[in-house]
Amino acid sequence: MESSEDNDPGWLWHGANWTFVIFGAIHGVVLGLERRLFPTAVKPGDAAQPRPVIAFLLLVGQRILTFNIFCLSLAFFRATSLHAAIQFLSGLSNFVWRSEYASALFMLSIFSMPLFAVDLLLEASNQEYPFANASYAFRTGLATVALVLLTLFSGNAFNAFVYFRF
Asked: Strand ranges (DSSP E) for the chain?
């Protein structure tokens, strides 16, 4: 018999609780809205096709909005309960600048801006995989460097990977 404190809906997969349902619902609703508000198929001869600069700015805005909604939804994915997720999100409205935020913002910029630029370049070139045409040796070397960096900058046992909770 489950305790009333356990948020496990029982009929879901391997012990997930309502936070995962909310996380999935957010993604489903946002995906539906994105498909409705930003249709992808525009024919080249369409008169309604936006100018390249406007289309680029719309794409940048869409990516920023998508990224931020995804990041906010991660509060539900990572939280141990709905109350904890809502408490975390409500804490975002009580923002007070602290000096250590400057270094965090700097590190975020260093790592995210190049990835954002690569994403936009891939979108503009209509490519999905940037290294698909690279040699096997180059791709293997790049994967090795990525694994070494991931190992060097990975967390400790204090903050275990989220899937280890199952």
From this structure: none
